[in-house]
Amino acid sequence: MLKSKFSVKAAMLCLIAVPTLAGSGGEHHGPDVVELLARTLNVAIFAWILYFFLKSPLADFFKNRAARIKQDLEMAKSSREEAERRLAEIEAKMAGLDEELDHIAQKAREEAEAESERMKLKVEEETAKIRKQAEQEIEQAKVDAIKKVKTHIVDLAIQRVESEIAGRVTTEDQDRLIQEFAEKMGV
User: What is the sign of the dihedral through the CA atoms of 174, 180, 181 and 183?
Assistant: First the structure.
């Protein structure tokens, strides 16, 4: 700090002294060396003052700017890596999509075949049930028909016998049969 105070005082002294020295000389018709030195020294002192006062803020600005750019680059890199990872995942899923669609189609075909087989078995079972029921109904109808025919034959035979007996049996025979029946019954 002591060195910088000394430098500032020296620079200010030069600023005051140089124009004074430049003005004390005689008349010259060419470029004045002292004036040129004074201007150069003024520019150098001005540059040094700018450097002295702006060194720290500019250094901080450029340091912060560099850190921000570095952070932005790292964030961009991580974003790019994340995007590439997601893209790879999507491409992997897309590659597996055709295989998955084929698998789903194959499974659907297998299920359709299985359902068709189940339906065929069910139809065969229902057909067998209907056939068995029809056979049972036919057998029952046959039994019933045979019974009816037998009953009808018996009725016809009874009618014939009755008509033949009626022609042979007299009223006295009928009375005698009734009495015998009543005696057997205990009446």
Answer: positive
Nearest to 41 by CA among 9, 16, 23, 6: 16
pTM exceeds 0.70, yes or no:
no
Judge contact between 49 and 12, C-beta under 8 A.
Answer: no
Q: Which residue, among 79, 76, 80, has the nearest Cα to 68 in the 3D structure? A: 76
Tens digit of pLDDT for each residue in 86-109?
Answer: 999 888 888 878 788 888 889 999
The CA–CA distances, whole Å, from 78 to 71, 83, 86, 89 equal: 10, 8, 12, 16
Q: Which residue has the tokens 């500032």?
A: 8
| Interval 112-161: pLDDT, tens | 999 999 999 999 999 999 999 989 999 998 898 888 888 888 888 778 77
C-alpha distances (whole Å) from 180 to each of 169, 175, 185 are 15, 9, 9
Q: Are 15 and 45 in contact (CB under 8 A)?
A: yes
Q: Exposed, middle or buried by CB within 10 Å (0-12, 13-18, 19+), for 152? A: exposed
Q: How many CB atoms lie within 10 A of CB 39?
A: 14
Phi, psi for residue 31 in degrees, rounded to 5: -65, 135
State how far Cα 92 lies from the chain centre.
15
Contacts of 14 (CB under 8 A, 6+ apart): 41, 45
